[in-house]
């Protein structure tokens, strides 16, 4: 199982393996529950990674009817589209303009309303409140060299999480819920410590193990 896990890691990291670069050389469709979106090569790929599918399955048991929903860093947008299908009023934000362009197209083609917002974390979302916030963050501690790499790398000093957790308290209430998915491959204790420094608690609400890798979903309050 360890060898299989290592193999999956190799093919899912497009900055480390030529095979992955070849696979992602052109836009590819990704489908879930009758929804199809096209994923551009410069956008985080849900095809060979685990986190997106885990979040989608986790969402299936949540009643989103008439709820306001934010996907912070939407990437392919499949999570936002699924939330719209489940009856939510959806905002999809990203710092990658190509991602937003493709999500906008998918929203129209699937007839699932999604408001796309170009935003670095909450910068363009000020004064807005949401019933649910979903986050699939970059967590490898390396400085990104492009917008594409920002989907993977959180900065050598975890700058992404420092910014996220400093901004997030403004958007938390006793009534809303924020979920974030992380892998055992990331430095969990470091990320938790940054959250704690901002008076935030990360409560484990779900965990699963696939192809030898544990993934965790945390509620943040």
Explain this structure.
Helix content is 30%, strand content 24%. By secondary structure, it is α/β, with parallel strands linked by helices. The strands form 2 sheets. It has a 7-stranded mixed β-sheet with strand order 5-4-3-6-7-9-8. Helix 3 runs parallel beside helix 4 (78-85). The longest helix has 14 residues, at 97-110. It starts with a helix and ends with a strand.
Please write the string of helix (H) and strand (E) elements.
HHEEHEHEHEEHEHEE
CATH topology: the name is: Rossmann fold
Distance between the termini: 35 Å
Judged by helices, strands and strand pairing, the structural class is alpha/beta
CATH class: Alpha Beta
Low-confidence stretches: 1-5
Strand elements, count:
9
What percent of residues are in strands?
A: 15-25%
Calculate Rg over CA atoms.
16 Å
Number of helical elements:
7
In which range does the helix fraction lie?
25-40%
CATH architecture assignment? 3-Layer(aba) Sandwich
Biggest β-sheet, characterized?
A: 7 strands, mixed
Looking at CATH, the homologous superfamily is Vaccinia Virus protein VP39
Task: Give the spatial strand order of the biggest sheet.
Answer: 5-4-3-6-7-9-8
The domain tally reads: 1
3D shape: globular
The average pLDDT is: 90
């Amino acid at each position: 199982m360890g060898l299989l896990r290592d193999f999956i890691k190799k093919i899912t990291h497009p900055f480390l393996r030529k095979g992955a670069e070849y696979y992602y050389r052109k836009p590819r469709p990704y489908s879930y529950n009758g929804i199809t979106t096209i994923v551009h090569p410069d956008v985080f790929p849900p095809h060979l990674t685990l986190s997106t599918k885990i979040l989608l399955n986790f969402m299936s048991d949540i009643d989103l009817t008439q709820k306001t929903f934010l996907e912070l860093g939407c990437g392919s947008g499949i999570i936002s589209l699924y939330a719209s299908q489940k009856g939510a009023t959806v905002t999809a934000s990203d710092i990658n303009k190509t991602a937003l362009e493709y999500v906008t197209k998918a929203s129209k083609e699937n007839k699932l309303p999604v408001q796309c917002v170009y935003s670095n974390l909450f910068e363009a979302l000020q004064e807005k409140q949401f019933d649910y916030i979903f986050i699939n963050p970059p967590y490898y501690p390396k400085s990104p060299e492009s917008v594409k790499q920002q989907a993977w790398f959180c900065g050598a000093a975890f700058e992404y999480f420092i910014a996220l957790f400093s901004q997030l308290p403004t958007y938390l209430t006793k009534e809303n819920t924020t979920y974030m998915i992380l892998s055992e491959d990331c430095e969990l204790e470091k990320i938790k410590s940054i959250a704690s420094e901002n008076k935030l608690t990360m409560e484990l609400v779900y965990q699963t193990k696939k192809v030898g890798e544990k993934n965790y979903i945390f509620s943040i309050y």
